[in-house]
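pasting for the record
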Amino acid sequence: MSDQTIFKRLKKDHETHRELLNRIESMTGDSEERRQLFRNFRMEVTAHAAAEEETLYSTMLEDPELRHDGQHSVAEHHELDELMAELADKDMSEGAWTEKFKKLKHDYLHHIDEEEEDMFPAAKEELSTAEAKQLGEKFEERKPEEYDRALAGKDMEDTRE
């Protein structure tokens, strides 16, 4: 098990996500490599978000001082899921894909910057170091399971009316 706090563990994932976004953006047109990078990004972010919601956000939602931040971040996860689903259905060689991807990148970077600069410090004040480490361990356990769910297509699209 990792001895990292939830905050360090989430930031580590964010760095991976930033790198993937930059690599996808640096490419043009439609290629198998670009499609695979986008699939990797989508699977990674989907698993990350689900494990984050099950660990840190569920803890935040139980705390009146942190509830608003947790609700806000969960709502942003939903918006990002919708953008990724829209992109998955578009042709990467079209300008519409590029424009939608730019929106996704902007919104995702805004989301993780907000988490790192505002939400994590607020949660850090409310949680003990032991709690933050325990949440980090729980995240480490949950994320691989959530990645498998994402690969299987579970929770990728909500088709409810």
